[in-house]
């Protein structure tokens, strides 16, 4: 349960940090800048990390089975890997400063891993 609450808190922090730049769709608004503060100073996609924490911890809570939670984590990573790749391609194309930001913050989801 603690992991789900941590994920929810991280999600709200990421959304609050993005302010007007937050969108559920892959889009860049006019005048948008690269956000590199808050959780975006640690990983490039804290919102997706937060979703993963909630998704996997909920699977563990509902099933009570670590194997089921592991399978959900694998499914999450496969699905979101494609979404993150598409988002990063768009951000690199639309926001010239994104390439430098990605060099400064090398991890997409997990510090030290991805």
Task: Give the SSE layout.
Elements: H1 2-18, H2 46-63, H3 66-94, H4 98-104
Helix pairs in contact: 1-2, 2-3
Description of the structure:
With 114 residues, the chain is an all-alpha fold. It has one domain (2-19, 41-104). Helices cover 62% and strands 0% of the residues. The chain has four helices and no strands. The protein has helices at 2-18, 46-63, 66-94, 98-104. Helix 1 (2-18) packs antiparallel against helix 2 and helix 2 (46-63) runs antiparallel to helix 3.
**Helix and strand succession?**
HHHH
Question: Total domains, how many?
Answer: 1
Strand content: under 5%
Give the overall form.
elongated
Q: Provide the residue-averaged pLDDT.
A: 91
Fraction of residues in H or I helices:
55-70%
Q: Return residue spans where pLDDT drops below 50 for at least 5 consecutive residues.
A: none
Largest sheet: none
The number of strands is: 0
Taking the alpha carbons of the first and last residues, their distance comes to 24 Å
Keywords:
single chain, 114 residues, elongated, mainly alpha
Put the structure in a nutshell.
The chain is mostly helical and 114 residues long.
